[in-house]
């Protein structure tokens, strides 16, 4: 079956195609070259005047794992206020900040997204996370395994085990948990919290293991590099949300020492201490450092005003944040040898100085980092805002007058303290296509995603070229997933299940002997039950297991 | 003549019928009432599929039959009278802010969750979480009265913030768990761990009960307010005797894991 997408305005940054009128052919779920004239085209979509891009990819969104379920359990009001009725096609659901799995999938697809990556899968929770993500229809999924505060790794680091042993362990974890990358959250800090430390700077020592976050970062970043994992170490740094953490972030960039590193939700790590309120923007300093250090990529974690819930593995900072919980309830949880998690509902207010400045800092970061290949569009869903705010965020980036209108409505002091009003830059559609499609795919090593070349999976989003970019990106005319039309006029028209992206780096099997002994002594599960087999991923309801190649 | 609905077909699976309250049905004729939408499991159905409807709504609604599979009866009720002859299912009077519900029979779990005002009377037994808060919510019942002649099960008055729950029989475990304020009176035995996590409020029982280690004994006294309250629930038909009214009470303070401003009053038998 051949499908032709005729005459659309194509944005395909991987091939340098910027607003060119092209035809795209789909055959067997893939994009192909123009077939011979004698081949019958079964279906043609006339896309004259419409914008054609690859399906969008969210590189950092909390959609699976224990913390989302805690958020759901804790927030009945979130469900009551946002019920979703079932239709002939789609199932019922609910939830604004922590939507149900089905609703998550539908809403992503209805914005033109075709792949989402869960950034904080605790190895011990991996099975539950994969089962939960298998329940998210429409999109492909993947997850980063969270290391750096787990007892086994910190013991190895404390005992000065060699680089190879650590690489073997990291690789074993990626294989056993069916992950596609490695994330570290508050390096060593979640563990330190359990030993009653309430603060851990880059060079402070974890009081029990006597190792510093700097050591954790270096060790994991080089392991990820050595194993050939395409996505650089995904770093949620120290001191999240603390005024003055811009210096910590600069130090972290230095600590990377040229190794590839992805700094996630950088907005939460870009706060200075200037001004009367000892809270200022560090975006300009950091953007300069990011522009200079080509080994660094970031995603923003933009906040947008309104009620949401923050869910993070960073128990240390979530505990700090629980004083500001709205509504007033929160959970901090220990997850045996691995780490922990914290869930704190939060309401960002545009008239609050700190919240308003956070909003401005995120946008400054977007606009001051020059290379869209190294900065990704996220709200750290649901921590900064639910993912459904992405179209609004895109409009803020693409429309300076709209941005300035919004700037004039926020807290006056915050607006005055920000340089946002003086930034003229407006993102182009080409740059949006880079930051939401091409760049995430390249960063994650998804060879056949994020572009529209021959051989790519036919994950395609088609939008009306509206002046109001919020409206445009909120309601694509068509979304194709693996060559099938799944969304029409912004509504799901066919429900499908996506696949799961994984990676299979090699490792020395002898590590399993050590691990078996460790599991028998300390873990609640046995080693053989911990590992997730390929068949399981399919049994949970995913359509396929997509193994991506290592570098 | 008031509006009367008699169950003619028992639902196979739970029937969600929040429309069965005097406010929603006010001024409707029998035909219109029979056409009101309900959910039978995941299928839409109408009141007439299950009930025979007679009379015209005049502020009083009579329900008859074994309604133990019918949920959300009287939910959101603001005024009027609702009389049920027979058992009722879960979430009776959910979120009600006024009016009077009387059930001659047993009630399921979650009697009047998040109730704000009005009165519920159950002549039989009730299930778990009477006057409770939905899971995840920190605040349950905000006001009104729940009078239960029979026994109740666990977590009665869970996270309640105001109002009165009076139980003629016994209560299960965790009576008044996490309660913020308000009053619970249990004339019979209470189960284990009464008042766990309570901040303020009063739990009263006429029988000895085992106290959590986070409660401390304060004194023995005759609280004046209790005499008034007991006379009030005696007038509502609960078996309060003169010993209860004249007796002295042990006062226990807790829960010390919270703000320690709550009290449990146990009738001093000595």
Question: What keyword list fits this structure?
Answer:
heterodimer; A: alpha/beta; TIM Barrel; nine-stranded mixed β-sheet; eight-stranded parallel β-sheet; about 25% strand; B: about 270 residues; mainly beta; about 10% helix
Question: Would you summarize the structure shown here?
Answer:
Chain A is 34% helix and 23% strand.
Which secondary structure elements does this structure contain, and how are they paired or packed?
The complex is a heterodimer of chains A (551) and B (270).
Chain A: E1 2-12, E2 17-27, E3 30-32, E4 43-46, E5 50-54, E6 56-58, H1 66-74, H2 76-80, E7 83-84, E8 93-94, H3 101-109, E9 113-121, H4 126-134, E10 140-147, H5 151-158, H6 163-177, E11 181-185, H7 189-194, H8 213-227, E12 233-236, H9 245-256, E13 261-263, E14 271-272, E15 280-281, H10 283-292, E16 296-299, E17 306-312, H11 315-321, E18 331-335, E19 339-348, H12 353-368, E20 375-376, H13 390-398, H14 400-407, H15 412-417, H16 429-444, E21 460-464, H17 469-474, E22 478-481, E23 484-488, E24 491-492, E25 500-503, H18 511-522, H19 527-530, H20 534-539, E26 545-548
Parallel strand pairs in A: 1-4, 1-5, 6-9, 9-10, 10-11, 11-12, 12-13, 13-16, 16-20, 25-26
Antiparallel strand pairs in A: 1-2, 2-3, 5-21, 7-8, 14-15, 17-19, 18-19, 21-22, 22-23, 23-24
Chain B: E1 3-7, E2 15-16, H1 30-34, E3 37-40, E4 43-46, E5 51-54, E6 60-64, E7 70-71, E8 81-85, E9 100-104, E10 119-122, E11 145-148, E12 164-167, E13 183-186, E14 202-205, E15 216-221, H2 224-235, H3 242-246, E16 249-254, E17 262-267
Parallel strand pairs in B: 1-6, 2-7, 6-8, 8-9, 9-10, 10-11, 11-12, 12-13, 13-14, 14-17
Antiparallel strand pairs in B: 1-5, 2-3, 3-4, 15-16, 16-17
Task: Explain the overall architecture.
The complex is a heterodimer of chains A (551) and B (270). Chain A has 20 helices and 26 strands. Chain A has 551 residues and is an alpha/beta fold. Chain A has one domain: TIM Barrel (Alpha-Beta Barrel). In chain A, a hairpin with a 2-residue loop joins strand 22 (478-481) and strand 23. The longest helix of chain A is centred in the middle third of the chain and has 16 residues, at 353-368. The two termini of chain A are 34 Å apart. By secondary structure, chain B is mainly beta. Chain B has helices at residues 30-34, 224-235, 242-246; strands at 3-7, 15-16, 37-40, 43-46, 51-54, 60-64, 70-71, 81-85, 100-104, 119-122, 145-148, 164-167, 183-186, 202-205, 216-221, 249-254, 262-267. In chain B, strands 5-1-6-8-9-10-11-12-13-14-17-16-15 form a 13-stranded mixed β-sheet. Chain B has a four-stranded mixed β-sheet with strand order 4-3-2-7, with no helix packed on it. In chain B, a hairpin with a 2-residue loop joins strand 3 (37-40) and strand 4. Chain B is elongated and about 60 Å long. The interface between A and B is small, with 9 and 6 residues.
